[in-house]
Design brief:
Elements: E1 5-6, E2 11-16, E3 22-28, H1 38-46, E4 65-69, E5 71-72, E6 75-76, E7 81-86, H2 108-115, H3 131-145, E8 151-159, E9 162-163, H4 183-198, E10 205-212, H5 226-235, E11 240-245, H6 256-259, E12 263-264, E13 267-268, E14 276-277, E15 280-281, E16 286-292, E17 302-305, E18 311-314, H7 327-351
Antiparallel strand pairs: 1-2, 2-3, 3-7, 4-7, 5-6, 8-9, 8-10, 10-16, 11-16, 12-13, 14-15, 17-18
Helix pairs in contact: 1-3, 3-7, 5-7
């Protein structure tokens, strides 16, 4: 009932708050014999952890994962895997002055409406801090996908209204802190971040996710379609406001002839479907895009109310990202890995 679990054959349950003692995840359904240890999870967490790049928060978390269960001699045992990630640099005093105020764009108002109580420190459970658990689980999921040569990549397609025109070499994203494969666009994005930061504001953007070598046949009709589960997984990330698969919104502007991926002897001629037809993978690259909203914690003064309904003004101070990109890129990658692992294991159960 708490909404903290995701997946069926490969199931994860995350726990913890932004300024609590720790966050973490319990993973159930991972097959036995998979090689995994803290260093593999740490490598994934390092790409998401705070304190990196011009858009990042100044909060410094080492995000050192501790495996509490489910691993013996470096291999999974088939029992629940528990990963704990301690919070080392939470500074809750920054929130004392606004503890009774509802921050615009945050979950303060809705959490209060649902539970009658909320952890105001950094957003509590609604904080992006929760995504560290997803990345840890995604690292485990990727180890299940590795023997099948399934690879997942992400890159920054747009940030602050600046969009790249084309991708000539995806590896170029490693040349800048924004994970943008267009060097000229990356420079413009960095300048935009600097300008907006001076104004006490924040930015959003678009991240593209590409899953390669996914076999045909993954996905369940009717309600557990692969694209439906991918959309749910990605939409469950706090800052994501829209998800596209394949041609996405452009499909509504096409004719049937333009949108259909014609089938040739060597495969599909195009990939407007994003690698999924009738909710089942067709063997092409799975392509998804997420539209990420601006970070709601901003210095600019805004109107709001307190818990008694009194009108007040608020300026959210503390340590916050200017944009969720590029840290969210790794979270998107992790959620895609979790969905594909879940459906891969479900397909194996079906065909065995």
């Amino acid at each position: 009932m708490s909404g903290s679990s995701f997946g069926k054959a490969f199931n994860i349950t995350s726990f913890g708050e932004s300024h609590g003692k720790a966050t973490g995840v319990v993973i159930q359904g991972c097959p036995p014999g998979i090689t995994i240890d803290e260093t593999i999870i740490q490598k994934a967490l390092d790409k998401r952890k705070p304190g990196q790049g011009p858009a990042g928060t100044k909060r410094k978390e080492p995000d050192n994962p501790v495996i509490l269960s489910g691993i013996f001699k470096g291999r999974t045992t088939g029992t629940p895997i528990t990963v704990l990630i301690e919070n080392k640099d939470a500074k809750s005093k920054s929130y004392d002055e606004i503890e009774s105020l509802f921050r615009p764009g945050h979950g303060d108002y809705t959490y209060q409406a649902k539970y009658g109580i909320r952890d105001f420190r950094g957003g509590g459970r609604a904080s992006a801090r929760e995504t560290a658990a997803r990345v840890a689980a995604g690292a485990v999921a990727q180890r299940v996908l590795d023997p099948h040569n399934i690879k997942i990549q992400t890159y920054t397609l747009e940030l602050g209204g600046i969009r790249i025109e084309k991708v000539d070499d995806l590896s170029l994203k490693e040349k800048n802190s924004l994970q943008c494969p267009d060097p000229a666009a990356a420079l413009k994005m960095e300048k935009k971040i600097t300008d907006v930061k001076k104004q006490g504001d924040s930015l959003g953007g678009i991240v593209e996710i590409i899953a390669s070598n996914v076999p045909a046949g993954l996905g369940e009709p009717v309600f557990d379609k692969l694209d439906a589960d991918i959309a749910k997984a990605l939409m469950s990330i706090g800052a994501v406001k829209a998800v596209e698969i394949g041609a996405g919104t452009r499909a509504s502007q096409m004719t049937g002839f333009e949108n259909n991926d014609q089938i040739l002897q060597d495969g599909f001629q195009t990939n407007n479907s994003g690698g999924i037809l009738a909710g089942i993978s067709n063997g092409d690259d799975i392509i998804a895009r997420v539209h990420v909203k601006p970070i709601p914690s901003i210095l600019k003064t805004q109107n709001t109310i307190d818990e008694n309904g009194n009108p007040v003004e608020i300026s959210t101070r503390g340590r916050h990202d200017i944009c969720a990109i590029p840290r969210i890129n790794k979270v998107c990658e992790a959620m895609m890995a979790i969905v594909l692992t879940d459906h891969l294991l479900r397909q194996k159960a079906l065909t065995s």
